[in-house]
Amino acid sequence: MSSHPTFSPHDFARALDGLHPDLRILGPDALAGRHPGEDPANLNAGVMVQPASTEAASALISWCRANHVAIVPQGGLSGLVGGGASRAGEVLLSSARLNRIIAIHADEETVEVEAGVTLEALQAALAPHDLTTGIDLGSRGSATIGGMVSTNAGGILAFRNGVMRHQILGLEAVLPSGEVFSDMTRVVKVSAGPDLKQLLIGGEGAFGFVTKVVMKVEPIRPHRAVALLGVENAARALQVAARLRRHPALLLEAAEMMWPRYVRDHAALKGFDISWLEADAAVLLVEVSGETIEAATTLLEDELAALWDEADLKGGIVAQSSDQTRRFWDLREDSGFYFAEFPNAPSFDVSMPPSALDAYVAGLSAGLATIGNGLDAYVYGHIADGNLHIAIAAAGPSPSDLKALIEEAVYHGITASGGSFSAEHGVGLDKRSAYLAHVDPAKQALARQLKSLIDPDMLFNPGKVPF
Amino acid sequence: MSSHPTFSPHDFARALDGLHPDLRILGPDALAGRHPGEDPANLNAGVMVQPASTEAASALISWCRANHVAIVPQGGLSGLVGGGASRAGEVLLSSARLNRIIAIHADEETVEVEAGVTLEALQAALAPHDLTTGIDLGSRGSATIGGMVSTNAGGILAFRNGVMRHQILGLEAVLPSGEVFSDMTRVVKVSAGPDLKQLLIGGEGAFGFVTKVVMKVEPIRPHRAVALLGVENAARALQVAARLRRHPALLLEAAEMMWPRYVRDHAALKGFDISWLEADAAVLLVEVSGETIEAATTLLEDELAALWDEADLKGGIVAQSSDQTRRFWDLREDSGFYFAEFPNAPSFDVSMPPSALDAYVAGLSAGLATIGNGLDAYVYGHIADGNLHIAIAAAGPSPSDLKALIEEAVYHGITASGGSFSAEHGVGLDKRSAYLAHVDPAKQALARQLKSLIDPDMLFNPGKVPF
């Protein structure tokens, strides 16, 4: 690489000036004071380029290739595994100005949208058409569609609608060569040669920069009812979810479980009343939609009455107002509360086949106990698709010295059971060792070969997923 | 390639004898008299190898690689684009003995299954668990799961459940290198590096031999009602389908449309009574499920009464017996009837965004009229996902001389409208010119590079999708 010039952030800003009229270049001064998002290293490159068109993105990428400059694609900076982290000498390629909703095909329930549109902005644009996205997640206000494509995001509705891979019909991207890859189909049935856009979906920015997509959407169901239920374990929670999924007049919109320590500590911190909950029970949040709010509420209450003994519920409370609904959801979605007490808590995002969840959580607790040091886990997640979020708390000093042992406890048995060490956050920087340890070697070798083929100079998001 | 030995089918049978105990080798004598399936060239290679294990498939593929022998993967031989066609000097690699249903996880609604299991056999095995596949298609008796993966099959339920790509959670395959690629996850949420199994799904046998998969399944809904409805056009059919999809107590199971000439000629051939249908109307077959057969029938009749004026129905008839239901479905599924009169009828399988369907069909008719020669089209298909099957009939001589002109008329405007020149059948041999003409050149170039990387000797299904 020594034959190529190296650039300081100020050099970049000068060199890129005038490259394409649709490029906005933000140097160190413009970036100073900006919040870096979920990873403190997101803005470390010190220079960000915001194209407002596919052509401008292509011009920037071609320039980077000619000058051997590495590119870190960025969306809403809400990623949790360092997938957007950057270093000096790299250029941040942001989708911030690719923020147009190109077309809403209401009758077809599809939308064409640029990559930088946030999930929440898309939901707001769809609402007047009585439509919404088939994927929803807590960081909807900042997460962009392009970022969600790149991490194959899942969220709350995946148990019903699948993940981003199942929602994307068409996709356009700029490849590391600078070429534009265009496959903007608007149909679900396409058997027209290998479906190469699948490499960009979940590609974590390694194979190109996504500029726009065609996405499925679905009818909005505004009439909701929400309950918090005490449950003994995941099996009971799944029993509740299964019954609600089969209800002829209700649609299950969410089934989010929080294990006892998560509930206890979060409720104490926020002053949330859990006097209705039996001691040491976990909490399941369920949300259903129906023909009216009253119908949804009444039918949910009827179902819960029937489930009370059948699923051995340990308490339950149905929201009686939109304010109470919001507070129920805050208990689940404001999930970073533990970082206040444990700022270095290692966090994980795994998935397991639902029937294996209770054994997994029991094994995790036992594994952490074996390590000692007072280690304990906050466990919560999207129970109906087996996706658990886990944060490791320690009573004593920071658990960072115990990293390898903790990872062993968290990842134990996941692959053999048919689960995944990363469910919806990706690999990025933080899960590289797990990728190396748990992904089939033949698959790793093939991924490396593909990366070398598509990005031979290794300029796209270098150092992330270990290629 | 001249430095490699060439084998006759008898040579193969001898050379492969004893390679692995789980390999069955069928030479020309054993294959003589076998029906070749949908393509007369399927068995032309004259030698078929049937592994009963992944290891045996790997041994065969490694041997082929060492001896530079081309491999044609085959499933149920029901493909319609020559994707399994073979030539002397090649070896057929059949999934026929990979026919085990490994595990049914009823509570999770997933199944682990080997590639050679037919769709119908899987449906039969699931039925005692009150489950069925989320994909269904007319050739269910012969189509195998592996073949359906390789063509990314769609069928009747794709409007609701997506295509095979959306149903497959995990996959194992033997790569052209002979290595086993294993990604048998049983969860929907996986963001653990690039999802390379997506290359095998819809890969038409170019990137390896699929040996087993994990598939989503769904509750069986046995209580059905079926109707045939006269409709003016696709817009009206979609109006009916949209209303039934939103019914709170019915689930739409199928929406299959047949344009007027298809209905008229097929009904005449089979002696099917269409006296209830207004002249020159198209026919929409709808199937719904409900809590009981009686409820499904009554609710469907109520909906159709409301739709009669609203959707300007041109006649309608609700099946009153299982025998009548079967005859309704035969009208749609026994779709090859036109080959009796037009044995060389070029046939196509395209998809269009639903709102563009009527303009497309009108343009097709106009295009064929411009060519002259009495050309006309049989049009039918899965209307709710915009998938049309098209066969070109000519009153005069065979239309084979007019191939280029006919393809121009059929494919006109499809890509620009966001549709696909191949919806669910694949590219194979027959759609190669359409692939070259209609797929984005950057995508074609990338596909060629991937093929060279994964199968550098071009031994897997050579000559199909033009790599």
From TrEMBL, chains A, B:
Residues 41-220 form the FAD-binding PCMH-type domain. Pfam families: FAD-oxidase_C, FAD_binding_4. It comes from the Bacteria. Its cofactor is FAD. Keywords: FAD, Flavoprotein, Oxidoreductase. PANTHER family: D-2-HYDROXYGLUTARATE DEHYDROGENASE, MITOCHONDRIAL. Belongs to the FAD-binding oxidoreductase/transferase type 4 family. This is FAD-binding oxidoreductase. It comes from Rhizobium rhizophilum. The lineage of its organism: Bacteria, Pseudomonadati, Pseudomonadota, Alphaproteobacteria, Hyphomicrobiales.
